[in-house]
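Here we describe the complex-level prediction in full. Unlike the single-chain runs in Section 2.1, the two entities below were treated as one system.
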Amino acid sequence: MKTRIQVKGVSVSFPVYDNAHRSIKKAVLNLTTGGRIAEDIKHHRVVKALDGIDFDLKEGSRLGLLGHNGSGKTTLLRVLSGVYAPTSGQLITRGRVASLLDVSMGLDPDATGFENIYLRGVLEGLKPKDIKNKIDDIADFSELGDFLNFPVRTYSSGMMLRLAFAISTSIDAEILIMDEWLSVGDASFNVKATKRLNALVKKASILVIASHDEELINKICDRVIRLEHGHILSDEKIKKTKAI
Amino acid sequence: MTQISPKNDIQKGLSAYTIWSVLGWHDIKQRYRRSIIGPFWFTLSTALMVIVLGVLYATLLKQEIRHYLPFLAVGLVVWQFINTVINEGTTILIGSQSLIKQINLPLTVHVCRGVWRNFLILLHSLPIVILLLLLFGFWPHGSIVLLPLGLLLLFLNGIWIGIILGILSARFRDIPPIVINLTQIAFFLTPVMWSPQILENRAWVAQWNPLYHSIEVIRAPLIGSPILIESWIWTVTFCVLNGLIAQWLMNRYRNRVAYWV
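The structure predicted for the assembly as a whole is:
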């Protein structure tokens, strides 16, 4: 089965139930940030975060998403990873999706490093045996050694990031969804991290990455979509993909 | 692997038992980390509660303590489960929002995690009940073989209620406080601390209460009485009905929950 993502006329509107009577209306209708604010039939305020998005990604696609804050990049990534169901339109994905949206997802500060690795593996639906294999890999990579037996709340923020990064990049994905390129830690660790991330990206059959860094997108993607107010502003091929 | 859809969410959630059982157990470990006797605090606090309330109410209601204490113990342990599942059910999806917004899991997994956590607490309180029964020389009724079925129904019902209240509360934030008030009232109206016999001709208050029958299918055999057929009918009907409502809510609103939490 070939991996594929088809996005057909996908729109997403967020209902905003609280602050219903506050006057956000006058303040926000015409800012460059954020989606369009409108009202639905029941007079709930809604934010139209995505509006009629269309694209089709086949095996080997490397898609970069560019846009202002609030242009709908992260929302689109969440739609692709299945968290938000489109309000209208259709999304068809084939292949195992893994997303790196928030690296510290599900990290429990009171649990030890090892426990956190285990919990995350369980959340991703792995079998205990596969998690055991992973634990060694993550322990090696994060270089945290005996600290993995300590509760995560005793870690420095750098150590925490190392662990989070090691855990979240130890995935096996056919479709990889990333919000910003991850960079962590001190110089020497960052080199390692970049290498690991590159390997992960290479292995994935489809990559979708959102970023503010045009240079990065030009380097690793072969197609770039610019978003504004939840619309596709432009959808272009990137001609020469340099090796990374 | 088929994708998670509103229609198969419950089924997929229930079958992902490794996820919710590990997470539920982890929650319990978390709560008692660095405590010496750990989850056996549940056992101890149940014992304390049963003994204090038991002595007090046996006197107030003029009941014989050797009959009253075991009756109260079983009822209280089961009620604690029902009560916490209902109250936590209202916040279970709201509380899992960071996971819901990051990873595509069946919503039922989050509900099962909470119900399983409380089921483990129930199991930890059970030794007290058994101890009391032995102490007062109770011999279980033959229908004790049906106890696993009663527990299963209790567990499933907890999941349905968690789904129903979880979805509704995610949308309408006034539901959690309403539910807390209602469960408080329900505690006094349900025969946990008193037995329906003392109501005499007003026993319908108990007879028309599905919670009473859900408790009764577990309590009756343990304290040596038969399970009445109407208790089974009430409990099974209640369970099926809740299951249908849960599925209906899933079908309609499953995909909206991520936007609401």
